[in-house]
Each structure stands twice: as structure tokens, then as C-alpha cells.
Amino acid sequence: MKVFVKRDSSFREFEVPRYPSQTVLDVVTYIQRELDPTLAYRFACRVGMCGSCAMTVNGAPRWTCRTHVDKVALDGRLRIEPLRNLPVIRDLVTDMSAFFDKWAHAMGKFEGQRTRRDDFQRVRPDDEKRKQVDAAIECIGCAVCYSACDVARWNPDYLGPAALNRAWTLVMDERDKAHTERLRAVAGDAGCHSCHTHMSCTERCPKALSPTASIAGLKREVAKALLKGEF
Amino acid sequence: MSSRGETQLWLAQRVSAAVLALCVSVHLATVIYAVRGGLSAAEILGRTRGNGAWLAFYALFVLAASVHAPIGLRAVLTEWLRWRGASRDLFLLAFAVLLLFIGLRAVFAVFA
Asked: What is the distance between the alpha carbons of residues B109 and A35, in angstroms, rounded to a whole number?
């Protein structure tokens, strides 16, 4: 199989043997171990839990560890590039700082109301808000959505699907006390209103989440807050 | 712009879109109805001249378009030209006023 790997500004071609159930991460690992030990890439768990091995495979961002070569090879070829919309450190490794800084800008940190001396605050699993949280909470921060997002490409300040999705889980969390402040943080110049609902994030999310729905929820909550005079 | 301002623009965009959806439907239905058996300036003017209802309808249509188009153009200018700040918003305000002016001029021209 012919594999083209992006290194700096050009592609390097490698010939890699095929195996049954081979993943794209297996291919990259083979190249680094057998063909070119200088190739830089990132992975940790290999089983779709850590979210560190995401790359652009034949044009689409994916977890390489959970992507079988069979499913994505075009005419028996693979083209592997780093994630888009993030600065490349080397080869297939991107600098994720900006991505995670945006989680902080979107106030992605839980702000509890109680202290350790208080009892647990109970949240019913069938509560409507809790269901919204459930639908969005499983994000592991792999940046596949961010890499797939057109708005993130056009507007480098855009908070992006993952950070906004995280903010949505906290906006819907009744234990959180920073509600209005967080709505203000996500509604700024490059916040939830910048989303064009292209749904590339939802299309590509390996956890089958819908950041698009979360962002639409934020737009609704922000509009309600404005109409109620809370802004 | 502030979160409040962004949200106001978003709401204005949504509300004007709803108005436009209605106006475009009525406008297209009228066009389809009106062109049966040919179209003439006299026929159009016969319908609109001195008719307050059409004046109000098309004035609302123009107003909604003048609100909607500049807000959409704002995203295009930001994303494609990286144009931000007060100069962009002043340009868009001028664009909105221009749309309103030429639109209302046309509406009054077929009314008066």
C-alpha cells in the first residue's frame, strides 16, 4: 500500500504492507519503527479513550487508532496529514494549546455552589436539563470537530465546537453558579453566533456527539437571557 | 462587539429572516398570479398606485432586507476579508442605509 505522509510542506511516500484489521495508527507506527524513525506523531491509549492520535486521513479528521485502513483507503492509498486549524509542531503533531485555551475562554470549568461540608446536590437522571448534559458530556477533547470546522478555519478566534459544547454542558448543569457569566463568555465576538450550522463537527465527531445542537442550545439560552434583561 | 451587541444582532437576523420568509412567499405568489396573461407596467402600477396595503407590505419587506443583509455580510467580511472593528460596522451601517433608501424610493415610486 502506498502511504503519503505530510512532512513540513511536502508529502513523503512510503510503501507499507497490509494486514487484516490494520488501523491507520498501525500504519503510522510501522512507518516510524521500520522506515523513518524521525517521523513525529502522537498517540497514547490506542483504544479510542485518550483522544491524542487524531490526524487528517484522506482529507477528513479522524482518530487514527479507531480507523481501519479498509474503511478509508482510496484506491489502496492513504494520505495522512496533521489536524487542520492548529499550528503544526512537527510532521503529524499539532500544538493543541490554542484549542484548550478556548475551553478556558468559554468558561469550561465547573463553578460549584456548595462546599465540601455540604451534602451532595441531587440531579435527577430524567431531568430535561440533565438529558441535555448527557447528550453532550462524553467529549474527550480530541479536536477532530475543531479540525473539521470551516468557521474555525476562517476565523482563528472562533471558540470552536468542542469548547462551546463543553460550555453547553455547564449551562445545562443546575449545580453550576456561573450561568449568566458563561453565557456572556460564549456570546462574544467569535462565540456561538459565529457558527454557520455546517454540521461538519457533528458529521466527524468520533463519539457521535452533536456540538451543532449544543451551539444551537447556547444561542437559544443567550437570546432568552437577553430578552429577560440578564445581559 | 459586546456579547449583548452580538446577541442583539443575532436576534435581529432571526426576526428579519422570519419576516423575509413571509414577504418572499407573498411576493412570489403575487408575481405568479400577476404574470398570468402577460405583464405590463400599467397593470403593476394599477395594483400598487395609491394602495396603502401594498405600500406597507413592501416597506416592511425593504426594512427586513435592510436589517438582514448587512448582518449576514458582516460575517462574510469578518471571515473572508478579516475585516473587523468600527470601520467594518460603519461600512455596514452605510450599506443598511443605502438598501433602505433605494428600496423605499422604489416602493414610493410605484405608490405615488
From this structure: 76
Q: Which of A94, A122, A154 is the last residue of a domain?
A: A94
Residue contact A193–B9, C-beta within 8 A: yes
Look up residue A194 and give its DSSP letter: G
Partners of A189 on chain B (C-beta within 8 Å) are: 1, 6, 84
Asked if A231 reaches chain B (Cβ–Cβ under 8 Å), the answer is: yes
- For residue B37, the model assigns a pLDDT of 78
Note the pLDDT tens digit of each residue in A24-64.
999 999 999 999 999 999 999 999 999 999 999 999 999 99
Task: Show residues of chain A in contact with B10, CB under 8 Å.
Answer: 193, 219, 222-223
Task: Kindly state the average pLDDT of the residues B62-79.
Answer: 96
Residue A185 contacts B where some CB pair is shorter than 8 Å: yes
* Architecture of domain B3-111 in this structure: Up-down Bundle (1.20)
pTM to 2 decimal places: 0.91
Nearest Cα to B4, choosing from A10, A178, A183?
A183
Q: Does A57 touch chain B (CB under 8 A)?
A: no
Please answer yes or no on whether B3 and A196 come within 8 Å at the CB atom: no
Q: Select from A162, A157, A168 the least CA-distant residue to A142.
A: A162
Q: Which residue in chain A is spatially nearest to B10 when comparing CA positions? A: A193
pLDDT digit string, tens, across residues B20-45: 999 999 999 999 998 887 888 898 89
- The verdict on a CB contact (< 8 Å) between B3 and A223 is no
Whether A231 sits inside 8 A of B7 (CB atoms) is yes
Its domain, for residue A76, covers 2-94
Domain boundaries, chain B: 3-111
Concatenated DSSP letters of A36-90:
-TT-----S-SSSSS---EEEETTEEEESTT-BHHHH-BTTEEEEEPPTTS-EEE
What per-residue confidence (pLDDT) applies to B78? 92
CATH code of A61's domain? 3.10.20.30
